[in-house]
Specification:
This protein is mainly α. It contains 6 helices and 2 strands; from the N terminus they run αααββααα. It has a two-stranded antiparallel sheet with strand order 1-2. Helix 2 runs antiparallel to helix 3 and helix 3 crosses helix 4.
């Protein structure tokens, strides 16, 4: 989503995000928040939409504030967007988070990944998961050091 948005705005692919690698962890952490909080809401799409909108917007605001406080940089700025709050969140993206909260993205990806992993033995599964986690940790540490210096 971020890459597509940046491409539309800037007309070319732009590396966005805090990490040196190709991952924007805000979306992963936000997805986890949505999965945990929206799993209890099964049938009421209106409540699910507004819950997703509020949860992710609060998270996005908090992440923006934290990154700026720690590293004195802004990785996104919605100051020119309609109904923004300190340029950290805006109505159009909040609505988008609400729509994403309704979507079937998580079940699709979860089923796809589980299907692939079921074909692998437990040792390979753990090796893949721990390797990805280790690489993310190294990237977070290296990125933090680079942005602090």
């Amino acid at each position: 989503l971020e890459t597509f948005y940046a491409f539309c705005v800037f007309g070319c692919f732009v590396k966005r995000g805090f990490l040196l690698g190709p991952v924007c962890p805000i979306y992963g952490f936000g997805a986890i928040l949505l999965i945990i909080n929206l799993s209890k809401i099964k049938k009421n799409n209106i409540i699910k939409f507004f819950a997703a909108m509020i949860i992710f917007s609060l998270f996005e605001f908090s992440a923006s504030w934290m990154l700026e406080t720690l590293f004195h940089q802004r990785w996104w700025d919605y100051s020119n967007a309609f109904l923004n709050v300190q340029g950290r969140i805006c109505l159009s993206f909040s609505i988008l988070w609400g729509i994403i909260g309704l979507n079937k993205i998580h079940p699709f990806i979860s089923n796809h990944v589980e299907g692939k992993l079921k074909r692998k033995n437990t040792v390979i599964q753990r090796t893949i998961i721990y390797s990805i986690g280790f690489l993310m940790l190294i990237d977070m540490i290296a990125s933090s050091i680079i942005h602090i210096i």
